[in-house]
Amino acid sequence: MQDRLYSTGAFSFALAYPGSNLLSIAQLFSVTHVYQAFHGGEEAAVSSSLPLAKRSVLGGLLPESLLYVLERSSPVAFAVAMVSDSDTPEIIWTHKMRAENLIRQVLQHLGDFPQKLSQHCHSLYDYAPVPPVTSRAER
């Protein structure tokens, strides 16, 4: 089941979380993001010839530089990077990018399901891939 966690919407709901306490989310992402069967699953995860953004279920949603923080550093470093303003050669990421691009676009994709879920806790998420997150400049 771990390789199909993506189909529950867990990654989408976690990325839509607007708070700053992201350590638990980062820990979950750390042990699952490259092991999802969204297109090749473990084969994709172990194929070092593919870029990390293609191996990770988070590719297209987060900059590849943040994915490398998750892979090469630690969940703590990733959680800090997600809520920080960084403009370095390694990472370009800001609160504004998270709020106006990532969270807004993921919530737009989820539509009214979060409200339905709060009213009917047994509702099942009908998985659909989130389109790649873009900045206003890219659109």
Automatic annotation (TrEMBL):
InterPro entries: GRV2/DNAJC13
GO biological process: endosome organization; receptor-mediated endocytosis; regulation of early endosome to late endosome transport
Recorded GO CC terms: endosome membrane
Entry-linked PANTHER family: DNAJ HOMOLOG SUBFAMILY C MEMBER 13 (PTHR36983:SF2)
Name of the protein in its database record: DnaJ homolog subfamily C GRV2-like
Species name: Sesamum indicum (Oriental sesame)
Species classification: Eukaryota, Viridiplantae, Streptophyta, Embryophyta, Tracheophyta
Gene name in the database record: LOC110011362
